[in-house]
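Person: At home tonight, work slowly through the protein below, taking as long as you need, and write a paragraph about the fold.
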Amino acid sequence: MATKQSEINLFIELDENQIPEKLQWSAEDGGVVNQESKAILLSVWNNQEKQTMKIDLWTKDMPVDEMKRFFYETLVAMSDTYERATTDTKMADTMRDFCEYFAEKLELKS
């Protein structure tokens, strides 16, 4: 049986101090080509080491208020992913409760 391959590409333009100035990503299967971004959080599970490897990048012009919102939305998405991956609705709901608390404390919701 033939398998399909798919690529997701990250393009990072750095300044002289290795600080990201420009971030772009492409996932052609998803219809995304050279989409600009201000922040990227990427987590990869290392099965051999039983730990998460991660890349956290943001451009120096990423506004702090947008970073706060980015974290909130990422936490909400992680709650949904956790529920789909584990079927643990009770803990997913607990995570969502934290997300609401997080948003309230950062005054992200009116």
The chain has two helices and five strands. Residues 81 and 87 are 10 Å apart (CA to CA). The helical segments are 64-86, 89-105. The chain has two domains: 7-59, 63-110.
